[in-house]
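ok here's Racemase, seq below lol
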Amino acid sequence: MTILNGIRVLDCSIAMAGPLAAQRLGDMGADVVKVEPTSGEWQRHASAGGATGNKINVSFLSLNRNKRSLAVDLKAPEGKALLLELVKTADVFLQNYRPGVAERLGVDYATLSAINPRLIYVSMSGYGEDGPYRLYPGQDLLLQGMSGAMLSAGAEGQPPAPAGQYLVDAVTAYSAFEGALAALFHRERTGEGQLVQVNMLDAITTLQMQELSVFTVGNKPQTRSAEAHAHSYIRAPYGVFATSDGYITLAMAKLAKLGEVLDDPFFATLDEESDGWTQRDAIFGRIKERLTTKTSADWLTAFRAADIWAGPVYGYADLVDDPQIRHNGTFVEYDHPTEGRVKTPGFPIRFSKTPSAVTRGAPLVGEHSHAVLAEMGLDEAAITQLIESGVVRQHA
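and the structure came out like this:
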């Protein structure tokens, strides 16, 4: 038995943050019903990296495993009635509509909690449910730019650099996932459901608890160096350095020990807690010049022998083949009926007695409409009428 067995989640979200939060609940055993338009959720038609797949593109495939698809037109009265009936059996309702849309559709918290007072209603937005930015588009890169984090790294005078992940989407997804679990735990104690609100701006801001506290409490300005230092609030050395055949990372080394490995007496004259800040550019420059004389493997061997924090800079091909990744079983593989053998990142949380598992791949549009409606008590004639009228889509 998985840990959320018996919990039903209605996933009315699109794109990445909402579907990823719902997928994590599904990974832990929740019955996640993806309620999507009869034309299919937006992400089905937006292929990241041009990876279109056979019937399901890779973007959708990666964010919607362990779900069933109910394809229904919520703008049709019959479709909305089906959803409201389904809410009676749900534990979690998750949506990331723009503010105001849930009310217009009649699926807002006030409406649904009146039908099911035990419901956990997770509402996700870009900037908050109200306020001056409430209608601005909540997109990952836009929120990265607002977060302030881009100006914590890199060289002064150089353009800000975004993260190499869809970072804000991921952090928001995990905030919603965490909120849903906490609200379910509260319900176990009290029997009452509640509204859980998560927004991308707050998620990426509060992720920077340490950095922003240094600014607001410690009154330290966010100052980039002339060299490409990796974070303005961490002393040198801290960054990415070229070697003779690639790149490595180097973090907060003891300067005297670093000087021994680099065979440079300059570092023995420095103090980490003073010169590590005031001479960041000089330190960076000398390391940069020295590291180009040997390979990444040579330097990593030397630094690890000296207990200096250093590591490789991977591409995805390196990451997937890394021995620790393979040892951990970080990726999972399973067979999908239309996409064949699938290999994707697996489960970040491990449970000794209730392990997560892939029980089904991402669904086709409306693949489970008939089964979900039958579970709701509709007879065959009623289901057939809904499908033939176009209110519900059942994949052939």
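fwiw The chain has a mean pLDDT of 96. kinda neat tbh
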